[in-house]
Amino acid sequence: MKIIIKTYIVFTILLVVSGCWDSKTIQNMTYVTALGLDYEEGHFIAYIQVLNFSNVAKSDKLELGKNVPVWIGKGEGKTVVEALSSIYATSQIRVFWGHIKAIVLKEGVLNNKLALRQIYDAIDRYHEVRYNILLYTTKESFSDILTQKSVLNLSPLDTIMDSPEENFAQRSFIQPQYGYKQIAQLNEKGRTVILPTLSTTKKEWQEDRKEKPMFKINGAYAMQEHVLTGWFSEDDLKGVRWFDKKSNRVFVQIPDNKKPEGSLVLSKPHPKIETLIDQDKARFNLTIKVRAVVEEMTKNVSVKMMEEQAAQVVREEILSTYRKGLSTQTDLLNLFGEIYRNKPQAWHRLHDGGHLVLKEDSINKIDVKVKITQTGKYKGRVLPE
């Protein structure tokens, strides 16, 4: 009798343990790694990038240089959820959204305040999607963007779109932007949000003699309180990087002309914005402190002279970027945001009275101090101060 009871208990446990009927094996799901969204004539158009993880997983069997196929799915709908859900009809197997690393938006979305909010609402509500997703814009077709590979035929997960941190650490220009931060900044008064623009270029890289397109961030769209104010090239935005404390490596030539005398790498800027409120007018004093390392010299120049030349380059880039935003009243340096955060009463008085206007003389003074901390391994061509 005891044997029968024990057998019954074991049989019952086995039935319970094997009861995960809805579990799915890894290879039987479609993993979305990037999402592209556009908005045209009242309809959302969604593109998803799908990778076979067995081809991109790090393992001893991974063949470096082996082509990694990319699948692209497309859906349409009157809402974001309808556009994404329409992909299920032809996906053949279950679609999993928990591995999305980047979202790319077209100008059609940015131009429609309601469409942008619907996208954030739909994506952030879905439990599989994470909050730390990179956010980009593009002017190119999603077919080109979502099928882009990396050097050595590495997967799209090893590109600027999905892994931009190392690239930004080596060349700090337009900082990668995460969706959760953009949501907060778009809702902040006086804040200008910079959305990096992904493009592809065939000029720089070749595989043997075959041209290979590569990602490049060639500029950014600017938005203020969910309103698109314009697109600016990378050259237009040079001055923004001096107000980003995370800028780790910025290359400059001194002086910035056709016959430079040297090259410096500037890092870790410390910006300070002082606001001057005079009745119905706001002006600003800007102070930038930054460290520098000598990378190259074509002429024997003193350390003090190099510091002064570098400071002049930084000053000119800040002024140039500021002036690029004047025609569209785009506060690219986020000067007005400083008033909102530190002098809210003055901000509301000026804003409600229509006096928060960028003018040619709104910047009162720019003080830049560059300190050279290293002259490189070769010191013989640097004169003492």
TrEMBL record:
Protein name: Ger(X)C family germination protein
Spore germination protein N-terminal domain boundaries: 22-199
Pfam families: Spore_GerAC, Spore_GerAC_N
Localization annotation: Membrane
Keyword Kinase tagged: no
Family to which this protein belongs: Belongs to the GerABKC lipoprotein family.
Gene3D superfamilies noted in UniProt: Nutrient germinant receptor protein C, domain 3
Membrane topology (UniProt): Lipid-anchor
Species of origin: Paenibacillus qinlingensis
